[in-house]
Amino acid sequence: MIRAYKFLMRPTVGQRAALTAMLRDHCSLYNGALQERRDAYRHTSRTAVRYGQQSAQLKDIRAFDPERQGRWSFSAQQATLRRLDKAFAAFFRRIKAGDKPGYPRFRGVNWFDTVDFPKDGDGCRWDSTPHDAVTRVRSQGVGHVKVNQHRPVAGRVKTVSVKREGRKWFVVLTAEQDQPEPLPATGSVVGIDLGIANFLTGSNGEFVANPRHGRRAAAKLERAQQALCRFPRVRRDRRTKNHQRAVDKVARLHGKVRRQRLDHAHKTALGLVRAHDFIAHEDLRIRDMSKAPAPKPDPEKPGSFLPNGAAAKAGLNRSIADAGWGVFLQILAAKAESAGREVMAVDPRNTSRQCPECGHTAKENRPTQEKFHCVSCGHQAHADTVGAINVLRAGLVRRDANPA
Predict the structure, then answer these.
(1) What count of other Cβ atoms lies within 10 Å of the Cβ of residue 389?
(2) How far apart are the first and last CA of the chain?
(3) Which of 3, 78, 161, 387 could bridge across to 172 with cysteines, CB 3.0–4.6 Å?
(4) Residue 370 belongs to what domain range?
(5) Whether residue 389 is found in the same domain as residue 302
(6) How many domains, the chain?
(7) Distance CA 109, CA 32 (A)
(8) What is the mean pLDDT of the chain?
């Protein structure tokens, strides 16, 4: 199995400048390759340029510009070109699926924050045997950078990535490991229902409160954003130190909310994995759930639109994003794999409208957000608990129908 590790880097002033230059030059390579693809498609009978053709040009590019491109890792530059190739592959896949295409865009220097090294030791090496009790990562063109390694890396390191988040730098490793020993069996199964009022409701009647980290920090974020908006838009080389401080403050607040959300997701997922052998959850399409409603043109007044509930939907979308369901489900799946547990996604349709006692399904069974009252047999319970019970039953049926 593959596991990722993320450690804080502590570069010197010179190393920080070199890391920034590395990101800038990789961003320039990405944008140049994108421009070449655009020009080839528009002006040469719509001829497509592939990754292999652009990768073959790297040797000439490095020889032509040794100061900016020649000093960095060849393999990392190939990884940057592969990133662009993946963006185009996703673009064409969305076209075939009938989704919004989203043509690949040029990246600004502030929107290109990661450089990937496909193989440990090829342009970037993780020092697995640190000297003088200090762990370091060596990157071509940067040197040996100190790393705050807060836990040991198990397994063989496969890839290394250097990432910038605000003013901090991180190294991200992926390591190949043997399958760990599974946790002892508990004999317990559970279904979970994700929501807004409660972050998680279990089929056993357990409730996990929604911490709403984003809403709690909304006032501070609003003031920080307002302070940032007071600065006029000027060129990057003319921005003042006060402007940079305002940018850093907004980034710090967003980073804190993100870390709080991740911490809550990790702790909740770990509790579920330790307590249950089988976990069933709804197969939520979060992107579709958080889409803005389509506008409704007024047929009697051309150019005008009818109310479509966009304001209320925007508030719901913010709550969905603040809950972080997608991140939580990814973390739950990863922890379950490491612990030898089974996680299964089921169809979410009518899970909170079907009576767990008699099986009657009707919209009227859920008169309010929290209350469930079956119109057929009179069964009453919390609506989220009913949904979790139905999710568990559907998960068990699917597991028994498809034994491993």
Answers:
(1) 22
(2) 18
(3) 161
(4) 189-401
(5) yes
(6) 2
(7) 13
(8) 91
Least confident of 46-55, 87-96, 137-146: 46-55
**What are the backbone angles phi and psi of residue 64, rounded to the nearest 5°?**
-75, -35
* 146 burial via Cβ count (<10 Å: 0-12, 13-18, 19+): middle
In which element (H, E) is residue 306 found? strand 305-306
Helix (H, G, I), strand (E, B) or coil at 281: strand
Cα torsion through 117, 339, 153, 11, rounded to 10: 60
| Side chain identity at residue 43, one-letter code | H
**134 and 232 housed in the same domain:** no
Report the C-alpha gap between 210 and 386 in whole angstroms. 19
CB atoms within 10 A of CB 254: 16
Return the beta strands (E) in 28-155 as ranges: 114-117, 124-126, 135-139, 143-148
Cβ(278)–Cβ(399) under 8 Å? Answer: yes
For 75, the 3-state DSSP assignment is helix
Tokens of 301: 């007044």
Residue range 283-308, pLDDT digits in tens:
998 888 888 888 888 888 888 888 88
Q: What band does 48 get if pLDDT is binned at 50, 70 and 90?
A: confident
Does any domain span residue 255? yes
Over residues 133-178, the pLDDT tens digits come to 688 999 999 999 999 998 889 889 999 999 999 889 999 999 998 8
Closest CA to 308 of 318, 294, 329, 290: 294
C-alpha span between 122 and 51 (Å, rounded): 20
Report, in angstroms and rounded to the nearest whole number, the Rg of the chain calculated over CA atoms: 26
Q: Where are the beta strands (DSSP E) in 61-150?
A: 114-117, 124-126, 135-139, 143-148
Residues paired with residue 116 on neighbouring β-strands, in sequence order: 161
- Record the pTM: 0.85
Q: Are residues 101 and 235 in the same domain?
A: no
pLDDT at 51 over 90: yes
Contact 303, 294 (CB under 8 A): no
Could you give the angle at the alpha carbon of 382 between the alpha carbons of 284 and 275, nearest 5°? 65
Q: Tokens 């200090």 sit at which residue?
A: 134
Q: Quick one: pLDDT at residue 344?
A: 94
